[in-house]
Amino acid sequence: MTMTRLILVAGVVMLSCLVHAGDAPSSAESLRDRAAKGLRRAVEFFAREVAVQGTYVWQYSEDLSLREGEGVASATRGWVQQPGTPSVGFAILAAYEATRDQFYLETARETAHGLVLGQLESGGWTYFVEFDPAQRNKFAFRQGGKSTGRNVTTLDDDNTQAALRFLIRVDGALERKDTRIHECVQYALDHLLRAQYPNGAWPQGYDRFPEPDRHPVKRASYPDSWSRTWPGNGQYRRCYTLNDNALGSTIDTMFEADRVYGPPAPENDLSDLAARCRTAAARAGDFLLLAQMPDPQPAWAQQYDFDMHPAWARKFEPPAVTGGESQNAMNTLLRLYTETGQRKYIEPIPRAIEYLRRSRLPDGRLARFYELRSNKPLYFTKDYELTYEDRDAPTHYAFKVPDDTESITRGLQRLQSLSSGQLASASSKKPPKANAALERQVKTVLAAQDARGRWVEDGGLKYHPANDKTKRVIRTRTFVRNIELLSRYLTATRD
Questions:
Q1: What distance in Å separates the CA atoms of residue 96 and residue 103, rounded to the nearest whole number?
Q2: How many CA atoms lie within 13 A of 477 on its CB side?
Q3: pLDDT by residue (tens digit) across 173-215?
Q4: pTM (whole model) above 0.90
Q5: How far apart are CA 430 and CA 227, in angstroms?
Q6: CB within 8 A of 286, min separation 6: which ones?
């Protein structure tokens, strides 16, 4: 081979190495460095190419031309409902806490500003934020909306609560210096507190506040009779609601406000509001004590009417004692005990656990619904007729749920073993530790990430027409999970 040819071959090899240098990690580059770069690429991609004014939806086609939340989403809409905008915001805040890189804090601020534009006059949020000026007129958004538009704050699916918890945390991280965010939080907390019923409950949604005289405080009881036919109206949204853990997530939001704004200080303009939030959380716990059904079914219903009887919600959610929300209620009571140290909040748990264990189905699970008094499991047919048989149940809803009473029992026993001093720190998060399993997870996540910072997966879009050709998607849930994993690793390996 001639010298000229040798030089040409060497040049080609060197060029090839340079071209592919970004595709494979350098042997000298640490896993921590790779994790930090992967984190930055991922958040930059989402913030610069995916976001709509700082907001996000649930899922995207690979080319980002199609978008959806719980339904098809336009290019001018961001989703609040989880795993939407607040989920992404929490993940970006985790990246900031792990790195203290101001890029992540500013990105979280952009997301917070997007949510500010979705705040309704009633104080909270509906399921999405619409940015098209013509479409915004259909909603009573505080900025750019129309007061005669839709104005229902929803507590369903941790919607308003998650948005508010994220805004509270961003406000704390920004040291309350962003007046738009700070004022939004004040307004939201004030209206959420005003929406609490005299007995401590909250509705599923509200656009007005309760009149105390119409809501006497009383204990839960069984109605003399109840209709087996769905009444067909939306009034259940005003019921005292546990459905989908609405009460538990609202209590969590109250405690978060107290945690961030609670310490009294001359410059703390929200310390009084924080104290009201902590009081409201305790009142909601007192409602859970009132809402426990008497024997023979000492657990909880999904929602209660103003006479404190279990009530209908949607056409597949009858008045009943529930295996699902009852377990949520007990976990919420455990949190209340942790936060307050008041034993009254854990007193109802043992008899509820004993009842649920007696009510297990043959396969070890619990029914979502148990008939009042008889305790027979209730189901629906695909035509939404109430039945005792589970053979023809719709598949869009979980009519059977896992039995988590063993986990709840262990949690109860652990808390009961703690002194008051230990209890005060029981809810504190322990810093993550680096280990081989965490490193393997990080390597897997980084290997799946492409050069643009994306995690693209096989799959289709759920709410688009059946003939949609999408075969590859970008899922917000995957982004959030991976960002939180990388952040946890960076925290665990930080000097």
A1: 8
A2: 9
A3: 999 999 999 999 999 999 999 999 999 999 999 999 999 999 9
A4: yes
A5: 49
A6: 199, 200
pLDDT in tens, 372-392: 999 999 999 999 999 999 999
What is the per-residue pLDDT for 270?
80
How distant, in Å, are the alpha carbons of 84, 91, 210, 426 from that of 258? 25, 22, 24, 17
What Cα–Cα distance (Å) separates residue 22 from each residue in 439, 442, 445?
Answer: 21, 18, 16
Q: Which residues make Cβ contacts (< 8 Å) with residue 15, sequence separation at least 6?
A: none
Residue that is written with structure tokens 């047919």 in the block: 381
Q: Give Cβ neighbours of residue 470 (< 8 Å, ≥ 6 apart).
A: 61, 62, 66, 460, 461, 464
φ, ψ of residue 349 to 5 degrees: the values are: -70, -45
Would you call 61 helix, strand, or coil by DSSP?
Answer: strand
Q: By the 8 A CB rule, do 206 and 195 touch?
A: yes
The CA distance from 487 to 495, in Å, is: 14
Helical (H) or strand (E) element with 483 = helix 476-492
Report the alpha-carbon distance of residue 308 to residue 298 in Å, rounded: 14
Find, among 330, 336, 488, the residue nearest to 426 by Cα: 336
- Token pair of 310 as six digits: 């279990």
Distance of CA 391 to the CA centre of its chain: 32
Output the six-digit token pair for 383: 């035509």
- Residue-level pLDDT at 21: 40
Q: What is the DSSP string of 145-186?
A: --TTSB--EE-GGGHHHHHHHHHHHHHHHTTT--HHHHHHHH
55 phi and psi angles, rounded to 5 deg: -110, 165
Q: How far is CA 387 from CA 228, 229, 310, 383, in A?
A: 10, 11, 18, 11
Which are the contacts of 143, defined by CB distance < 8 A and separation ≥ 6? 116, 117, 119
Instruction: Give long-range contacts, CB 8 A cutoff, 24+ apart: 335-338.
Output: 335/248, 335/251, 335/252, 335/255, 335/427, 336/251, 336/281, 336/282, 336/285, 336/288, 337/415, 337/423, 338/415, 338/423, 338/426, 338/427
- Residue 431's pLDDT band, with cuts at 50, 70 and 90, is confident
**3-class SS string, 195-258:** CCCCCCCCCCEECCCCCHHHCCCCCCCCCCCCCCCCCCCCHHHHCEECHHHHHHHHHHHHHHHH
